[in-house]
Amino acid sequence: MPQYLNSNAGQFHFEQILRDAEHRVLLVAPILKLNRRLQELIDVQVAHAVEVRFVYERNKLSHREIQWLDARPYARAFFLQDLHAKCYLNERQALLTSMSPFDYRRAAKYEMGLLVTRQEDPELFQTVFDEAQKLLRAATQLPLMAEAGEAAQAPAPHRTKKPVDWQLAKKRGLGLDAFYARLAVCGYLEKRGNRLRLTSKGRAAGGEAGFSKRYGPYFRWPADLSLEPHGEAKAPFISRLW
After folding, report:
1. Domain parsing of the chain, residue ranges
2. Contact at 8 Å (CB) between 18 and 120?
3. Tens-of-pLDDT digits for all 242 residues of the chain?
4. CATH of 3-138, one of 3.80.30.20, 3.30.450.20, 3.10.129.10, 3.30.870.10
5. In the 3-class helix/strand/coil scheme, how is 126-163 assigned residue by residue?
6. Model pTM?
């Protein structure tokens, strides 16, 4: 049966989930933020080719943290609107908790959680694992931008009437992943590390980068944007590898 965890036990098992992972770790939490200890644990795992996946709703990374994440190809972040769940798991353990990954070492926090293991409760573990995978599949890899710096230079959302990416994707009958892949094929976007960047061709086509404090980075495009590729096409680039 699931094991109840208090604050200290939750911190311990959170680290164990990261340390004991053999192939992959999934960290689901509304806020994407890092601390020094979390970066150290992730560094150890990515050095052994363990895939680390974040699913988040709000990006609170600093510019330096984004650069750090970009330099680690085995660590990727995926945006999911309306995410409120917190769940951290590897191949054998799942931690459902009130604790956020970026402040799990703060002793003053009072947390509660449940630990589910594949060995002791395989049916429940599989249910949690499958639900976490659904969240990952529903999420989208978006460009990561700091709340200051790059974000401040982006065009203000209220100054343009161009539809944002998800609005235009819906009008074209495409999922957001497929829409981004089509933009890459057309040469409007390119991937650099964990981020999508607007190319010179994308800017010439009327594309604009923006940032929302609630939803994170996004792009705006003309409503009549052509999605027909010209010249040599690039391969779609978005993959969760889970």
Report:
1. 3-138, 150-220
2. no
3. 899 998 888 889 999 999 999 999 999 999 999 988 999 999 999 888 899 999 999 888 888 888 888 888 889 999 998 999 999 999 999 999 998 877 655 555 788 999 999 999 999 999 999 999 999 999 988 777 665 444 433 444 445 468 888 888 888 888 777 888 889 889 998 877 667 788 989 888 999 888 766 556 778 899 999 988 765 444 444 444 34
4. 3.30.870.10
5. HHHHHHHHHHHHHCECCCCCCCCCHHHHCCCHHHCCCC
6. 0.64
